[in-house]
Amino acid sequence: MVEQVSPALARRIALAAQGFGRPHPAVVGTRQLNGLVDRLGVLQIDSVNVFERSHYLPAFARLGAYDRSLLDRLTFDARGPHTEYWAHEAAFMRKEDWPLFAWRMREYRERYGGPGSWFEVNESTAEWLRGELEANGPLVAGEIEHDANRRTGPWWGWSEVKRALERMFLFGEVAIAGRMRFQRRYALTEQVLPSSVLDTTVSEEDAIRELLRRAAVAHGIGTARDFADYYRIKGPRVGVALQELEDAGELIPVQVRGWESAGRPVRAWMHRDARKPRTVEAAALLSPFDPVVWFRDRALRMFGFHYRIEIYTPAPKRVYGYYSLPILIDDALVGRIDLKSDRQAGVLRVQSAWTEPGSPPATLDRLLPLLAETAAWQGLESVCVAEGARGDLAPLLADALRPGVGFGA
């Protein structure tokens, strides 16, 4: 008989698998940060910096305040243990995981490097880049652009160089040797990855099964679409690998009340090692690209949270804000808040703040110290609500943050 799991327990299992519900360590060092990346598998990268770049936020949400330069050392330094690839979207991951994506690199080469493709037509550009990187790499695109323009004239400029580099990165011919001022530093894979990684071969079937296993561990509980989305795996091979994991006893079939499609229960699994906590105590602001919410269908099914990022929505049409962050309190997403780090003024500005239907009365009291901690982590002196801030939670925050009432500007 298939095990029955309540929606509340499913939420707690999922959050525990993601590292929530544990006390923050007294000191966050490289060991804790490495452990976090190992738990999540990937840190998705995004360049938006109005509040804070996305890859810094999952660690803050799970571990509390930490020195961001420590994470930079692990991800931006070519000597660190991590590199980048399109593991979910663009993401930091362990260098040792590179062979697990060889099948994806082959698929990208077939799609973007085949006969008649732009890459084939511009093979001379790629060949020149190979020589340039071998002689001078790692390099950011701008450094190569300068040489390309100087050596070959305006017909072969930055766009061609950058496009070729990105194609070679997709194909696994080029790897990222950290970042400089958030710009990728391109290098040949042998300049970035150790021979132990380069000499490792993993079959497509084994790689996909392993990636889905890791997705199940990171999610704790989920559907085939949940697990497949974690590493963006598509097609019938997903079902084949999940069945193999079930047959091996790694995945336990379950049914979650309310997880239905067309009136029928959606097939779901729980990882055999998933924790089943009775409670989850947490207070965190989630990046729009946090694994808890990055698959919007799962966020809606799991938390009843309809979430869309509005960066690309014209300002007059935005509902919740440019970069609204889901607010996690215990095992529920209780609201969303749009923040801006005004570093010149030393203020964390709340640009909009909303509660979700049924949010608990303690939402404001739980959010206030979280905002204070967030401001301090950002090196800001205070928190304030911007004039004209939208949302039902904004005036409550503004009142609580008035001098002499709580804390703030």
How would you portray this structure in words?
The protein has 17 helices and 17 strands. With 409 residues, it is an alpha+beta fold. Strands 13-14-15-16-17 form a five-stranded mixed beta sheet. Strands 1-9-12-8 form a four-stranded mixed beta sheet. A three-stranded antiparallel beta sheet has the order 2-4-3. The longest helix has 16 residues, at 204-219. It is globular. The termini are far apart. Mean pLDDT is 93; it is low at 148-158 and 404-409.
Main features:
about 400 residues; alpha+beta; five-stranded mixed sheet; four-stranded mixed sheet; 17 helices
Short recap of the structure:
The chain is an alpha+beta fold and 409 residues long.
Which structural class best describes the helix and strand composition?
alpha+beta
Distance between the termini: 58 Å
The count of β-strands is: 17
Overall mean pLDDT: 93
**Overall spatial form:** globular
Beta fraction = 15-25%
List the helices and strands and how they pair.
Elements: E1 3-5, H1 7-17, H2 30-40, E2 43-44, H3 57-63, H4 68-75, E3 82-86, E4 90-94, H5 102-112, H6 118-121, H7 123-136, E5 139-140, H8 141-152, H9 158-171, E6 174-180, E7 183-188, H10 189-192, H11 195-198, H12 204-219, E8 221-223, H13 224-230, H14 237-247, E9 251-256, E10 260-261, E11 264-265, E12 268-271, E13 283-285, H15 296-303, E14 324-329, E15 332-342, E16 347-355, H16 363-377, E17 382-390, H17 394-400
Parallel strand pairs: 1-9, 16-17
Antiparallel strand pairs: 2-4, 3-4, 5-7, 6-7, 8-12, 9-12, 10-11, 13-14, 14-15, 15-16
